[in-house]
Design a protein that fits this description.
alpha+beta, 5-stranded mixed beta sheet
Amino acid sequence: MSDLRTQLTEILDEAEWDWLIPHVKRDAVIVVAEDLDLLDVGVAIASDQVLSVQQWINQQLMAKPSETQMGNWNSDRSKRFQTLIIQPYVLVKEMAA
């Protein structure tokens, strides 16, 4: 598990909203709540920890971006996100301004 976490740490990155739009269009972006660690979520998805992932979804701590969120981000195209690609998904977490 620690090897997986190390691998994911190496691909943890930042992206602007504009860069994420193509991934939103293919319905691949998942927004992770501020309360969760992006690496923890990535490890859970990559290692098929279904119960953890389902619990986060049920608690609305991870979800597809809402219309409201996308509208806000479209008005600030330089909005930055912490990102982690776990094929076929792009996990994103809003960064503080």
